[in-house]
Structures are given as structure tokens and as C-alpha cells.
Specification:
The chain has helices spanning 92-98, 117-132, 144-161; strands spanning 3-5, 19-21, 26-29, 32-35, 45-47, 68-71, 74-77, 111-112. The strands form 3 sheets. A 3-stranded antiparallel β-sheet has the order 2-1-5, with no helix packed on it. A 3-stranded mixed β-sheet has the order 3-4-8, with helices on one face. A two-stranded antiparallel sheet has the order 6-7. It has 3 helices and 8 strands, in the order βββββββαβαα.
Amino acid sequence: MPIRIARHALDERTPHRDLYVSPGHALFIDGVLILAKDLINGTSVAPAPPADGEVIEYFHVLLETHEVIFAEGAPAETFLLWRDNYEGFTNFAQFARLYPSGFAMKPFARVAGFESGRDHLKALLRLGMRWVFPGLEPIPGAREPIDRAYGRIAARAEQLIA
């Protein structure tokens, strides 16, 4: 299910229109790549189910190297090719013929993301506790780039609603 990043969810200019990405697509925020699914706050970043009968079709931008480009003004990653993660492509056979030995890319920047649903839930609980108890110290080893970005985007969403 696509994730909708609402207009101006990231800052007063970005994105300049609603941006729809896959849950595993990363945005370049604060010097790291953060998966869209890790930024969901239910307001300005939220799952966007398709309308009845609507089909979602994803298009991936694949370059020679993993890069960051602008999508509706937001810094978003191009496709990160690794192992055989292109097998779901519609043009898989053509791609395999063009690159029979395959290749893998180095990420443009460090990818900050939660490995499992359990990690994601723990992070959300930790963020909630920090909202209730502002002086609460972060848990050692917490993924601070995600916490900071999530907190900033969620606070912005609350301001926009008020």
C-alpha cells in the first residue's frame, strides 16, 4: 500500500504536492535514508489505500549508481539494486538479458530503518513515551536519525492541524 507524504509535511516547502511512495522507499533526511514506513504518523505521513478498483503501479528510477533525486521537491532515493531485488519488475527478463552477471550498488548514504515490525513498534512506543515524559532519555542504541525526523515531522503535522 502506498504511503502518502502530504504537501509540506517535511517543511514549509516540501513536498510541494502530495507525494506517494512505496513503504520501502527512502527519503534523504538529515543525511541518512529513512524508509517511508518508518515516518508514518497517521496524519501528514500515512498509508493511502487505493480507491475501489484502482491499481497501483510503481515506477522505479534506476541509474548506474544509487542516487538521491527530487520527487515533488522532496529528496528521494533512486532504486537501490542489490542481489536479485529486481525480479518483480515487469521487464525482469529484459533486465536480466542486459545484465546477465547482475550487479549490486552501494547505498548513496546510510540507510536507517527498522528491521522488523517488532522494532518499529518498540520505536513508536519509545517516541510516545518521550511525548508524555519529555525529559525521558532515549534508549541506548536507539535509531536517533529516525526518532529526530519522525518527531519533527509529527510535530509539524500537529501544528498544521491546529
